Amino acid sequence: MSCVDESTAEKIARKKALGRLGILRRSIMVFKVRVGEDWLFGFVRTKFKEEGFQIAVKLAYVDCKGIALEKIPSEINESIREYIERHVAMLLERELSSLVK
């Protein structure tokens, strides 16, 4: 059996993460990571205020067969959590400092 293609997997992930009207939310940026034959999609929304900004990310995991899993596999979820907790500030510092110079 062949796996679903990238665009089909993204449609499935978008519906899972954002609901039935997710296809209408064009202001959301998408990133995707291939995990073996499966896909991990992230849907990023930003909100800016005078004093700063917020970043919200919803993740959806779609297996090779095109099924959106209810939960992201624990080892992947833990790796993401660990990376975010340790590296987001450093990532923002590096990227923003090169941007505003």
Describe the structure.
The chain has 101 residues and is of the alpha+beta class. It has 2 domains: 70 residues, no CATH class; 31 residues, no CATH class. Strands 1-2-3 form a 3-stranded antiparallel β-sheet. A hairpin with a 2-residue loop joins strand 2 and strand 3. The N and C termini lie far apart (52 Å).
Number of domains: 2
Mean of residue pLDDT?
A: 91
The counted number of beta strands is 3
Multimerization status:
single chain
Coarse shape: globular
Tell me the fraction of residues in β-strands, as a range. Answer: 25-35%
The SSE order reads: HEEEH
Tell me the major beta sheet: 3 strands, antiparallel
The assigned structural class equals alpha+beta
Question: How are the strands ordered across the major sheet?
Answer: 1-2-3
Radius of gyration: 15 Å
Low-confidence stretches: none
- Helix content percent band: 25-40%
Terminal CA distance = 52 Å
Give the helix tally: 2
